Amino acid sequence: MSIIETPAATPLKPKKLRRSKRRESWRQYAQRRGVSTRTLDRWVVDGILPAPDYINGRKYIDPDTEPRTDAA
Questions:
Q1: Which residues contact 50 (CB under 8 A, 6 or more apart)?
Q2: Residue 37: which residues within 8 A CB-CB, separation 6 or more?
Q3: pLDDT at residue 26 above 70?
Q4: Residue 24: is its pLDDT beyond 80?
Q5: From residue 44, how far is each of 28, 40, 50, 62, 64 by CA, in Å?
Q6: Closest CA to 44 of 65, 28, 21, 23
Q7: pTM of this prediction?
Q8: pLDDT at 22
Q9: Is the CB of residue 12 less than 8 Å from the CB of residue 44?
Q10: DSSP one-letter code for 29
Q11: Is residue 2 part of a domain?
Q12: CA–CA separation, 18 and 16 (whole Å)
């Protein structure tokens, strides 16, 4: 007799836990940097900051993101 693997016979794998990304609102990030939200928008266009994440129409960014200083 051969062993047939069935879903009941296979060991269960632990599910990967999805880590939530840390995010800060666009406004909070601007206040912490001492600039306006419009300035952040310009920095995205100029390539100084990466594009923000949009959640329900609002902009969020990783709070550890540093503006590039080598972009001219």
A1: 44, 61, 65
A2: 26, 27, 30
A3: yes
A4: yes
A5: 16, 6, 6, 14, 16
A6: 65
A7: 0.68
A8: 86
A9: no
A10: H
A11: no
A12: 6
Distance of alpha carbon 32 from the chain centroid: 18
- Is residue 11 included in any domain, yes or no? no
Residue 17 lies in a domain: no
| Residue 71 C-beta-side C-alpha neighbours within 13 Å | 12
CA pair distance 70, 55, nearest whole angstrom: 29
58 located within any domain? yes
Q: Where in the sequence is the domain holding 46, given as residue range(s)?
A: 35-65
Cα angle for residues 45, 50, 52 (degrees, 5° grid): 95
Question: How many separate domains does the chain show?
Answer: 1
Yes or no: say if 15 and 24 are a contact pair by the CB < 8 Å rule: no
Round to whole Å and give the CA distance between 41 and 7.
51
Rounded Cα distance between 22 and 60, Å, is 9
Both tokens of 57, joined, read 């129409």
